[in-house]
Structure formats: structure tokens, C-alpha cells
Amino acid sequence: MVGFCFLFGMLFIVFMLFFCMQKIQKILYFVFFYLYSKIKKRSFFFKQNSFFIFKRLSQLWLVQTCTLFFSVLFWVFIFRSFFFEPFHIPSGSMMPTLLAGDFILVNKFSYNIKNPITKKIIINVSVPKRGDVVVFKNPLNPKLYYVKRIVGLPGDKVKYDVYKKQLTIRYNYVYKDKKYSKIFPMFYSDIIPSDFIKIFCSNDTNNFINIPCDSMLESNFPSIRLMQCKEYMGDIFHYIFIIPGYQDFCHMYYKQPGTLSAEWIVPNGKYFMMGDNRDNSSDSRYFGFVPKENLVGKVSMIWLSFDKQNKNFPFYVRFKRIGLVF
């Protein structure tokens, strides 16, 4: 509740600043000319003729341009710091939910509100949930931003079957007696072919091509058709891509002390992330848990999408994906 009050307070301040833009411009005019008068040592002239100076300054193109520039810069800073930030999807690790070439908007106040300078959490708004698609900073390299799905919450025991490509989650595992921890309801539908293949030995770093199921392209290149199925997390579901029979680099999995291979117990204040393209994703299986402080926000929608395989305008714009809400 406090977080929402803070948010509405910020909105009120933003609207007040919008209506007071003329006052802000006059203040900026004053600052610009004051600095100029200091340099030219004409402060006395400035005080005696301030009315005519302001009238003259309002007609100066340079001052108006600078005022407009700093005003726009201010609004962009407020928007990106507290509300929404755009990101570009460069790879296929979240296919089929997010495709390479998608441009997304991330809700930065979905979980907390941070100081835009220090990045410290000011107010907690809500708690992340299983199944949320989020953008976060890589715990090993905070300069890298990743987008994955939250699979494990604090206190969960996550087990991944590298053969069946299925998850088993026991919640409240570290807070209760291990014998009485409950299994989170997860179900998987039948596996069916997808419209994507993964091409090997390609110069394209993405290595994924969307083709019709009856296309002959698949037989002309060394490739593997990706299979898909529904993964149910409680009452919600999403599609995941898998390669049946393919064992990923499980020997490179993050090994948590005291647990078996491909098993993890999520510590307090951290989360376990996985990509929907299970056999082609660098996620918590490899770099470990993600602290809450590293969460940037929840993915809200796709506002633009380009198909890198199609170079002809306007066909390379994926109009059907624009406006998809998460």
C-alpha cells in the first residue's frame, strides 16, 4: 500500500511539473543568463533590466532549444528510472515466449522502487511469483541484462530432469521439515513439433529459423527441429522448447554444496531463473541464484518486433506480436 501511495505521489509531482513548465523555463532562462552575466561581469545591468532581459531571452532560439532539451531529458530520466524501461531481445533463450528481435517494456515498479542513483531498494511493492518473466542483472557480471522466467522462489527445492526436460519443485523446503514439504503442482502436455529449427554451423549467432512444418529447408542443412509442450505452473501455463534426447551441458551446471547434480535449494532473498528454450539458455542452472536486488522489473508487453530473417519492409515487422501483454 505504501508503494502505491509513493507511486501516485510521483505521478502527482510529474503532472504538477508538466503544468508548471513555463515557470521552469523562466527559471532556466534566469540560470543561463545569470551564468552569462557572471562571465561578462554585468550583474548590475542584469538586476536593473531583468524584465526586458527575460522578454528577450524568450525569443532566443538557443536558450529555448536548451530548455526543451533539458526538459525532455528530465522526463526521460523520470520515465526510465521509476516507470518503464525498454529492452531488446538479442537471442532465442526465451523462445517461444520472446523471439530474437522483440522489443519489450519492463515495469520497473512491479516489485520495488529503487533509488535511480544508488540502485538501492527504497520501497517494496510486491513479491515476485513463479512464472513471472523478468529482466535482471547477471549475478556474475552486473553489466549484462538477462531476461528469463522465475522458476524457484526463496525456500524452494528445484530439481531438473535433464532427460524428461521437466521440473520438480518442493516449496517451503528450508522453512519446514523436509518430510512435510509439499510439491508444487506442475504438469506437462504432450510434445509436438514446433515451427522452429536450430541450424548448426551457421554464421548467425542466433541459429534459429522459423519455417513451415512442411518446408524442405530442414533437410538441406544440418539442423534439429525444436519440439514444444505446455508447462503448467499451478493455474497458469506457457510453452517451452526442448530437444528430446539431447543432454545439455549438465556437467557445467552450478553445483550447490550439499545437493545432488541438477538440484538446487533457493536461499532466502534469491531466485532461480530458467529460459523457456530449455536446451539453449544460459540461466541459473549455470550461474546460480539471482539476488532480489538484481531484479530490474517484470516484462509488461512487446511494443515492437522485427524478424531478422526477413529483410523486406514491411514484412520484417512482426505485427502480430506487437502489443502482446504478459
From TrEMBL:
Lineage of source species: Bacteria, Pseudomonadati, Pseudomonadota, Gammaproteobacteria, Enterobacterales
Record-annotated active site: 93, 148
This protein's record includes keyword Phosphoprotein: no
Name of the protein in question: Signal peptidase I
Family: Belongs to the peptidase S26 family.
Subcellular location: Cell membrane; Membrane
GO biological process: signal peptide processing
Organism: Candidatus Westeberhardia cardiocondylae
Residue stretches making up the Peptidase S26 domain: 64-303
Keywords tagged on the record: Cell membrane, Hydrolase, Membrane, Protease, Transmembrane, Transmembrane helix
Membrane topology classification: Multi-pass membrane protein
